[in-house]
Amino acid sequence: MKRFFLYLFVAMAALSSCQKEEKSVFDQTPDERINAALAKYQADVLSSPNGWKALYRTGTGQAFNFYFTFNNQNRVVMYSDFDTATTHPRESSYRIKALQQPCLIFDTYSYLHMLADPNPYVNGGDAGAGLVADFEFAIDTVKGDTIKLKGRQNGTELDLVKATQHEADLWTKGDWTRALGLQHITDFLTYFKRTTIGGVDVDVEFYHYSRQIVFFTYNSSGIRTPVTASFVYRPENPNGAVFTNPVKIGTATISSLTDMTWANGKVNTKVNGTTNIAIGEAIAPVVVNKNGATSWWLYKIQQGYWVNLGFHQNGVDDAFGVQSIPGFYYMAYLPAYDTATKTTYWDWMAYAAVKDNILTIPNSSSFVPTFITDGRAIFNTYKPDSANAPLYVTLTTAAFTDPQGYYFLQVGPTTIDMVGVRDAKTWLRWYWVE
Of 8, 150, 253, 307, which sits most exposed with the smallest number of CB within 10 A? Predict the structure, then answer.
């Protein structure tokens, strides 16, 4: 037994001696290794003499082009095709920092932040979420001419690719703005934007932030069918909007709209780089749906009501200021309300607001439609505005009772647009609520 303990003591002593002689497999401390990695990545972002180009796809699926130049003072100058304003340079700060792993952080408000902004008026996204974009990125890999980044919050991917001098010039000399000519469609004041493609007259809707173009075709009854194309902007070869997937209209299969110019109140462009078309204002549907107005009104059998957020007029949303009502909720219209007694609330519209968590009706009106055989509805009021009615009420009443009336166009299963016949510059969007 004594011999056993002697052997055990010798073994433990030998093991202790070996442990004292162990050395770290690294030549640097963890902090030194982290700092070295950060310095390397800092050198990487500074390594492109002509800056970096990037195609960034948000969490909601839209694709935006960017151009970045970084300096050694932690400043970055960027351009974007987010809108025409963002094709001008904007400077902000950046950092290379260790946050569990090396990260590239854009830490002051920039064009990237605009995509993530929770205010829907900034980017057209959902309130509180924006376009589900990132501005803090983990550095994934650096290989060849590409730095791959991954968003820390939403997992979006941003690949920085070294730009050529020519690609840099496209941004810094303003050539990129030519690719954004389709945005001029939003300069039209009329609801209808008209062109002819493949022998078919179509209306065009342009959604810049969602990167979509919708072509509306009509059948002989005036029923519209949307044909939707998602697109990415390209500065050249071709210059303009390149569709993610081609769409077919009439005899034409469309893969791009390029070489855009804005002249004489029209957007002039080429289909697939060859066929010239012009998009301009129109004041009536291609074919009027003669049942559109009555279909809207007869939706009452669904036991619900229509709501809207105020009139759009001459390019201005909520042109009459109904959303300035304290606690504004919506404007609600109940078709043929109280039909048994035909009271003054026949076809009643309420200006609804919320106060102390209670729904209130600070003002109301009555607009009764007369349906014309050509598809229009003309409204009269059976509840005149009081002498001291707010301006938003009198303006709304004046618009509703325009003697030329309104067209009604189906937008979605429970969404209908009411468009002024006079000049198509006044319209209202209805949403059905059950």
Answer: 8
Angle formed at CA 246 by CA 244 and CA 249, multiple of 5 degrees: 140
CATH assignment at residue 382: 2.40.128.230
CATH code (residue 101)? 2.40.128
Residues 313 and 374 reside in one and the same domain: yes
Nearest CA-CA partner of 315 in 190, 433, 412, 421: 190
Residue 145 CB neighbour total at 10 angstroms: 12
Residue 200 bridge partners (DSSP): 197
What pTM, to 2 d.p., does this model score? 0.81
386 within 8 A of 358, measured Cβ to Cβ: no
Full residue range of the structural domain in which residue 251 is found: 178-282
Amino acid code (one letter) for 22: E
Same domain, 67 and 194: no
Going by pLDDT thresholds of 50, 70 and 90, the confidence category of residue 344 is very low
What's the rounded Cα separation, in Å, for the pair 328 and 316?
18
Taking only the tens place, the pLDDT of each residue in 267-296 is 999 999 999 999 999 999 999 999 999 999
Q: Please work out, in degrees rounded to the nearest 5, the angle formed at the alpha carbon of residue 290 by the alpha carbons of 285 and 291.
A: 120
pLDDT tens digit sequence for 129-162? 899 999 999 999 999 999 999 999 999 999 999 9
